[in-house]
User: What shape does this take?
Amino acid sequence: MTTKTRETTIEADPNLPTIRIVREFDAPRDRVFRAWTDRGLVARWLGPRDLEMRIDAWEMETGGRYRYASVQDGQEVASFYGSFHEVRPAERLVQTFTWEGAPDGVSLETATFEDIGGGRTRVCLLSVVESMEIRDQILSSGMEVGVNEGYEKLDEILAAE
Assistant: This one.
């Protein structure tokens, strides 16, 4: 299964419990990485437009942890947590990701940041989950809306810097 919207490609390997998301940004790699890892910037772009992002914990370092929640009209609608396993500035970020509503569905996510020239960056995010069933639940959850709208907000932030 492949979905492509506004330069974002979301792919699911038919034989592996993985989701691969690829997106290019019109900004240098260090700025894109900073927007991905700076608590204040992440809160501004992560998730769909109709939700506010509240970051409760953010220890952006190898061995650190995070927790954030999506909020709508003052009410928490979803929350997520995980650990940062590797933070390699402007190159690679490895973390776990868990939706509190499905604690058995933890994924291991690796984001790589590639300089593609001309002041542009390609981000590849690979998520690995325990089973095909969990992967398919994630794909059918509407996650592409949050991914696409979040990346559109990130484009706006990067253009304004």
About this structure: The CA atoms of residues 41 and 47 lie 12 Å apart.
